[in-house]
Amino acid sequence: MNGPSNTASRVTAHVLLIAGALLMLLPFIWMLCVSLLPSEQAQAATVSGDLKRLIPLRPEWSNYPDALAQMGSRRWNGFLDALANSIVIATISVVATVLSSSLVGFAFARIRFRGRGVLFVIMLATMMLPAQVTMIPLFLVFRKLGWVDTILPLVVPSFFGSAFFIFMYRQFIAQIPESLIEAAALDGHGWIGIWWRIALPLSRPVTAICAVFTFIYVWNDFLGPLVYLHSDEQATLAIALNSFRNQFGGVNNVHLLMAASVVTMLPCVLIFIVAQKQFVEGLGRGAVKG
Amino acid sequence: MATVELKNIGKTYESTRAPEGVRAVRGVDIAVRDGEFVVLVGPSGCGKSTLLRMIAGLESITEGSLAIDGRTVNDIPARDRDIAMVFQNYALYPHLSVRANMAFGLHRRRQYPSRMRAMVSPTYRAARTAESRRIDDDVQAAAETLDLVPLLDRLPRELSGGQRQRVAVGRAIVRNPKVFLFDEPLSNLDAKLRVELRIELRQLHRQLKATMIYVTHDQEEAMGLGDRLVVLRDGAVQQNATPTEVYTRPANRFVATFIGMPSMNCVDGRLHRSDAGERFAAEDFVVELPRGKGAGATPGPITFGIRPDRVHVGAAAHSCAWRSEAIVEAVERLGDRADIALRVGAHRLLARSLPEHAPAEGESTAIGFDPRDGHLFADCGDAARIG
To answer: Is the dihedral of CA B221, B225, B231, B235 positive or negative?
Structure first.
């Protein structure tokens, strides 16, 4: 099957894929380049759209500390507070989503109980509900609980699982041979022990997807923190970046805005690179088995 | 170790198609003595695995009672029955090394499980460390018994089928449970390895003196391993006896034909009684029965059975009490023996002989047997043995 037509189609496919990948990368490369340009060159490149001027021949690394120091109302503290808040919210959300979604997915996959099918359908139906629909009722509930301007409204819902990830875990755990679950039961474990020691470690690819997706979603979430977090001390990086844009949004400071943007999105890129192997494996498995 | 007592055990599955449910196991009475090796054997779908899983606690018991060491365990969950099971597909935890697989059950049953407490209490920490050392020693000892020491740090995917099977057995023995259950553990292995591991299992049983219940559909494996066989069919026990007794005095026609390879020859006919004695008669096949054989049976329809290894051909047939002429339909030469299909009138009989004594296909040969080696089965109900 290695004839000339096959080679030609493979070359065509690769050319198209590389072109697509470059197209996707272009905004990121543009942002990275502008973040390293001196102020005048960044302005000129942005206004003129001259691609030759985009290349940072002498990278201006000081743009980064300058941008980060000016985030928020207090020098450096604004950025550090926002970073800490983002890390805390993202970490709690990731851990809670992984634990709760896998536990519920495990129960749906392995425990036979009356009403399991109906509950699973109801759970899936919640995926159809747009977040905007529940936003106001949820806000009223959290206000009643006195949780506004705390991180609780942003992290507590993670402890109740996410319908999409519950579905993924359920599909994956259903593929684990029944005899492994039974062997663990004979070795003395109850349902929780089997979930923790067998199902969760074996679901590593799904856990990677769940963790990466949740992290990226929470890290980039703008609407949630905007609704619930009002004071500067509670702001996340997404909120701080928005304030920074409002303050330094003009073309004069585009290099600083891009530097701040790069720093904000860097953790997402790093996490994706680190978890890439597991992540791609998980997506592949989901496609075959799910 | 322990005794296992099954009294009138039954299992009915709920089914939307059958309102009364589907009965997988019915009225099973088995008493397994301490240290005994009992094999549950039967064809696919006879309920042997279901029965084993009921003993393990992996299936609920819908009728009867199950006692382990004198204690009724019907409602005790699997994890509290202190039973170890070796599965057909080994069920090794793929993310854990051989060592961790073997220690898995021991860690669960630790007396000092808390790592947190070990951090704050020196006494607890010392006890926990000593316990960890004991677990390591137990794993090492079990690994030495089964020649698994070089494999202890490997993952299950890095092992061959036979090695995985031995790890599964190791995981069971390291726990020193009350009862060992084996669910067709050799069926995924090739024939040569199966024979080797059968011998190892037998040796292990002698060494551990453990109560073992083993499920297989392979009658040769069952005969070779068990102190006692329980032959099952359609969820009911057909015979519960030693392998020799099952082979030489099968309880009914099903057991007679299921146990033994090739299968027992069975000819349907009638029993006639006269002053001279009893006679079995079918078309082209009449056997004068020795005195006493069939004495308890009522004259009428009956089945006569004779094992192929008791049927002689050629010169060996001349000294037999029953003789006839037969056409050789086929000869299967199996190295150390030959299985010969013979046509006697309307009936086909199988005989087993040494390959050098086997006649050529298509030729006519003498055939004979001693009627005392024959078995008589009723021609109704479960075709019970009558002589």
So the answer is: negative
